Amino acid sequence: MRRTLIPVLALACLLNILSPKAESGEKNGSISPLPPVTLEESSILTVEDAVSIALTHNPRLHQAQGNTRSAHADYRIARSELFPKAHAIALGAFGPPGAPAINGLNGLVTGSRTFGTAVNVVWTPFDFGQTWAEVKSAKAQFYAQEDWLEATRLAIALRVKEAYYTVQYQEALVSLYKDILKNRAMISRQAKEFADKGLRSMVDFEMARTLEAQVRQQWIEALNERNVSYARLQEAMGTQLTHEPSLQPFDAISPEMPAESAEHYRLEALAMRPEMKAVNQELLAARQKLKAAQRGFLPTTRFVGGAGYIHDDDELENTDNDNRYGAFGGFVEQPLYTGGELKGYVEKASAGQSIQNARQQEVALRVATEVVESYTRVKAAIEKISLAEQTLRSATEAHRLAQRRYQLELGDMAQLSQADIQLIEARRLMTQARYEYLLSQARFEFALGKL
Fold first, then answer.
1. What is the 3-state secondary structure (H, E, C) of the chain?
2. Out of 126, 247, 299, 370, which could bridge 447 as a Cys pair, Cβ 3.0 to 4.6 Å?
3. Which of 47, 2, 17 is nearest to 233 (CA)?
4. From CA 399, how far away is CA 423, in angstroms rounded?
5. What's the pLDDT score for residue 184?
6. Could you give phi then psi for residue 101, rounded to 5 degrees?
7. CA–CA separation, 64 vs 49, rounded Å?
8. What is the pLDDT of residues 290-319, one digit of tens each?
9. Residue 155's pLDDT is what?
10. Is the pLDDT of residue 5 over 60?
């Protein structure tokens, strides 16, 4: 008993040593975050750089890549059913003659020392295309996951662009209110000088201070929104930056009107969007799955074979038999009654195909709507920029004249304040029009399936 127990304990210790151990942080399910991305202090983070960082670090992309690898593994597993399977077996038994057969050694003569080796082969050469349909279904699912991976890339890129342009917009507002705040402070000092000299009443000075306080509040709000937008940009990129880099200003943009009609772009998107390719592949997989389930009612042909050697001390003493053996054969298996199992498989596969048909139509409608909507918004944004430019020119000239009249004591603070408010609104509308154009252009490219 002691001789038997010691090897068993030694084997258990060896298996415990060789078994994979949990990494530090995996015991409680936690995962160490990725290190922050380091940029040069003087570098400018472009929108292309932000997208590139996101396509390397964003966790959603890693999940989609894992789904793709899993689908490829499923395809390899399904394809393995097309080939023969060979297994090597080694058997051994030690004990007195006539002892009960051990599980796995049934059929062997149990003597004082019995051992054997064998190689068994099983192959299903023909099953009326059931296995081929399963392989085609798994292959289509793998292609679908590749397309969903590309769709995830596009979605991540769009989200990064939206967050990047939002930071640009908030920074432009911060700069706008900062410039206006300087101008308001100058007007307040000028109003104070006029009031001290008796040229203006203190009402003008108090009104100027009130307007200055309003702009200061708008500047603080824009600064806070800028900080929030920057945090959302880092979230969209899927990582943290070691410092806040400078972004490209979007003051100088060249709007481009779409060259083709909305119908042209709709048809292009239905052919090029990875979501459409993915649902088409999933529909193909569902059809092959139904085909495989229907073929389950048909016969299956299998070949089996084996060859090996058995050694038994007691049998060798009493016989002169050659203990090498080999056997090959085949059989046909025809399902007769499965308790509704095969019908259930067919019903489930049929329902899956109906679901994929509906999903394909849903995605096609969504893609078409996104194209038309983004196409319309791009054209509207370009028109807004043109109108905002005209308004800004008029408001700038009106503000210049009002400020000049006030300095010459020909106008009052109410006129200057009204012109100032109109200039602020015109500059804000110009900034917003550029922001809306960049957003609509990014969404239009996404709707067409372009990164």
1. CHHHHHHHHHHHHHHHHHCCCCCCCCCCCCCCCCCCECCCCCCEECHHHHHHHHHHHCHHHHHHHHHHHHHHHHHHHHHHCCCCEEEEEEEEEECCCCCCCCCCCCCCCCCCEEEEEEEEEEEEEECCCHHHHHHHHHHHHHHHHHHHHHHHHHHHHHHHHHHHHHHHHHHHHHHHHHHHHHHHHHHHHHHHHHHHCCCCCHHHHHHHHHHHHHHHHHHHHHHHHHHHHHHHHHHHHCCCECCCCEECCCCCCCCCCCCCCHHHHHHHHHHHCHHHHHHHHHHHHHHHHHHHHHHCCCCEEEEEEEEEEEEEHHHHHHCCCCCEEEEEEEEEECCCCCCCHHHHHHHHHHHHHHHHHHHHHHHHHHHHHHHHHHHHHHHHHHHHHHHHHHHHHHHHHHHHHHHHHHHCCCCCHHHHHHHHHHHHHHHHHHHHHHHHHHHHHHHHHHHCCCC
2. 370
3. 47
4. 7
5. 76
6. -70, 140
7. 21
8. 999 999 999 999 888 888 877 665 554 555
9. 95
10. no
Residue 51: pLDDT band (50, 70, 90) is very high
The whole-angstrom separation of Cα 203 and Cα 414 is: 10
Q: pLDDT of 394-427, one tens digit each? A: 988 888 888 788 777 777 667 777 787 788 889 8
pLDDT in tens, 106-131: 444 445 566 678 888 899 989 999 99
pLDDT for 364 equals 96
The secondary structure of 205-251, three-state, reads HHHHHHHHHHHHHHHHHHHHHHHHHHHHHHHHHCCCECCCCEECCCC
Q: Do residues 447 and 269 make contact, with C-beta atoms less than 8 angstroms apart?
A: yes
In 3D space, the residue among 100, 120, 118, 119 whose CA is nearest the CA of residue 110 turns out to be 100
pLDDT in tens, 327-373: 888 889 999 999 999 999 999 999 999 999 999 999 999 999 999 99
Structure tokens at 379: 């054209």
- Please report where in the chains the tokens 């059913």 appear, as a residue: 81
